Amino acid sequence: MILVIGEILFDVFENEKRLGGAPFNFACHLKSLGLPVRFISRVGNDALGKKILNVLEQYRFNIEDIQVDDTHDTGTVSVQLDASGIPTFHINTDVAYDYIHYLPKAHSSLMDNADFIYFGTLVQRSKQGFENIQKFMKNQHPGALCFYDINLRPDCYSRKVILASLEHADILKLNTQELDECKRILRFSKDNEAFIPFLMEHYELKFLAVTDGDKGSELYTPDGRFRSKTHRVSSMVDTVGAGDAYSAMLLVGIIKGWEPDRMLSMASMFASRMCNIRGAVPDSRGFYEPIKEMIGNGG
User: Are 9 and 48 in contact (CB under 8 A)?
Assistant: First the structure.
């Protein structure tokens, strides 16, 4: 079972609101691809929160995993797209997902049964969020692998959060800008050719994926370094959620034991297809059918 912990929110575009949040996007893709997923988050006791609960029921998530906050609003993010579809985010603060509680009675069995645990950085931006997510991590089963999708957003992270999160990571995914920021935070003076092996060894990482937009991506494992070009986007709409799609397919490959080259190719392909639609998750389940066929046929 894959346990995903983190934010679910509404991305607010100029003319519409679309469900998002990196952990939800990741969980939604895996669920839609037929993998066993539990998703822990928190929403406000408001209209947007009720809408989220309805959508999660439609996706057949366990609604008991979603906490309802009577004090804080459901999270929202204002999204502005440039001419190329590249988003700029303005993330509202002090919202429900900042207060996801670790509840031993409800969560200890989930932690014990999780084969993979996914978490990110945004949900740890507040003191309460950091302390609660770290409680989850400290109660993980020794055999579980932690996927840390770093997703750094301006003014929503700290050195303390990143260092503590890296200590729990077995799988790390980040982009080139985030790699540079981690190097600054860790006060590492050498180039990336030295920094990545340092991260792999120091944090005992099993996989480290670095994405670089249309330049492609790289995957590092104890067996070596692998590189893939970006798949062509047939009709660019926006890049919102492309990285989350990449992460989801990367985990599919890890679960299925694909060779690194296949993992990278499939992750890049899935991310490129997300760029053909608006927002971070598709409106139609039919979007996933050809992907499921490719996965079933070995990628």
Answer: no
* CATH class name, domain 2-296: alpha beta
Q: Give the separation between CA 19 and CA 139, rounded to whole angstroms.
A: 29
- CA dihedral (286, 290, 294, 296) positive or negative: positive
- The encoded tokens of residue 162 equal 């990143």
Closest CA to 243 of 207, 283, 214, 204: 214
> What is the residue extent of each domain of the chain?
2-296
Q: Measure the CA–CA gap between 291 and 249, rounded to whole angstroms.
A: 10
Distance CA 228, CA 284 (A): 28
What's the pLDDT tens digit per position in 135-178?
A: 999 998 888 999 999 999 988 999 999 999 999 999 999 999 99
**Distance between alpha carbon 63 and the CA centroid of its chain, in Å?**
20
pTM: 0.92
